[in-house]
Amino acid sequence: MNLIASVDENWGIGADGQLLARVPADMRQFRQHTLHHVVVLGRLTLATFPHAAPLPERTNIILSRDPAFACPDAYVAHSQEELFALLHGYADDEIYVIGGASVYRQLLPYCRRAYLTRFHAVYAADRFLPNLDAAAAWQLTACSERMRHAGLDFTFLTYENSRPLAY
Ligand SMILES: NC(=O)c1ccc[n+]([C@@H]2O[C@H](COP(=O)([O-])OP(=O)(O)OC[C@H]3O[C@@H](n4cnc5c(N)ncnc54)[C@H](OP(=O)(O)O)[C@@H]3O)[C@@H](O)[C@H]2O)c1
C-alpha cells in the first residue's frame, strides 16, 4: 500500500484538527494519486472533510473503534484486522493511507511507498508523521524541483520502504 501526506520541515502534518497549509498543486497531486482508488483514513480525518463526507470517486475505508459509527458511502473498519480483511479485496498499489497521524503511524510498516509534499516551513503542529529520514528501511527515491505558492516553498518527495510488512 501507499501513503500520501503533506509535511512541514519537522514532519508536522496537522494542528487543531486541520491541515497545516492548503496548496493547490498539493491538492491536485493528492487527487491524481487517489482518484478511483482506495483511501484509508481515521475518523478524525474524515471529520475535517466538508460535511464530514467521504471523498467522492474513491473507495473510502474509515477506521473507528466505535461500534455505532456508520458513514454512508464508505466502509468502516473497527480494527487493523478488520481493515486488512477488507484490503485483501484490492490491489496493493491501489491503496492509499491518507491519515491522520494515528493511522499513518500504525500502517507505515505495511506501506511500500510514501508520496510526500514537503512544505519548507515550520508550523505549530500537534500531529506528526514519523521521520522517514531516520527510518533505516525508508529511502528517498525522487525529489521534484522546489515550487512556490503564496510565498510558501514546497517540494514533492517519494520515499520507498525496502522491507514492507505483509498484511
Ligand atoms: N498533512 C496531511 O497530509 C494530513 C492528512 C490527514 C490528516 N491530517 C491531520 O491529522 C490530524 C488528525 O490525525 P489524528 O491522529 O488526530 O486522527 P486520525 O488518525 O485521523 O483518526 C483517529 C481515529 O481513528 C480511529 N482509529 C485509529 N486507529 C484505529 C484502529 N486501529 N482501529 C479502529 N479505529 C482506529 C479512532 O476513531 P474513534 O475515535 O472513532 O474510535 C481514532 O480516534 C488532523 O490535524 C488532520 O488535519 C493531515
Describe the structure using short key phrases.
167 residues, alpha/beta, Dihydrofolate Reductase, subunit A, 9-stranded mixed β-sheet, 3-stranded antiparallel β-sheet, 4 helices, globular, binds NADP nicotinamide-adenine-dinucleotide phosphate
Report on the structure:
The chain has one domain (19-161): Dihydrofolate Reductase, subunit A. It is built from four helices and twelve strands. The longest helix is centred in the N-terminal third of the chain and has 11 residues, at 24-34. The strands form two sheets. Strands 1, 4, 5, 6, 7, 8, 10, 11 and 12 form a nine-stranded mixed beta sheet that branches. A three-stranded antiparallel beta sheet has the order 3-2-9, with no helix packed on it. It has 167 residues and is of the alpha/beta class. The chain is globular. The protein has helices at residues 24-34, 43-46, 80-87, 101-107; strands at 2-7, 12-15, 18-19, 38-42, 59-63, 75-77, 95-97, 113-119, 127-128, 138-143, 147-149, 152-161. Strand 4, helix 2 and strand 5 form a beta-alpha-beta unit. NADP nicotinamide-adenine-dinucleotide phosphate (NAP) is lined by residues 5-6, 13-14, 17-19, 42-45, 48, 63-66, 69, 78-80, 98-103, 106, 127. NADP nicotinamide-adenine-dinucleotide phosphate binds at residues 5-6, 13-14, 17-19, 42-45, 48, 63-66, 69, 78-80, 98-103, 106, 127.
The CATH topology is Dihydrofolate Reductase, subunit A
Number of helices: 4
Computed over alpha carbons, the radius of gyration is: 15 Å
How would you name the CATH homologous superfamily? Dihydrofolate Reductase, subunit A
Number of DSSP-assigned strands? 12
Q: Order of SSEs, N→C? A: EEEHEHEEHEHEEEEE
β content, as a range?
A: 25-35%
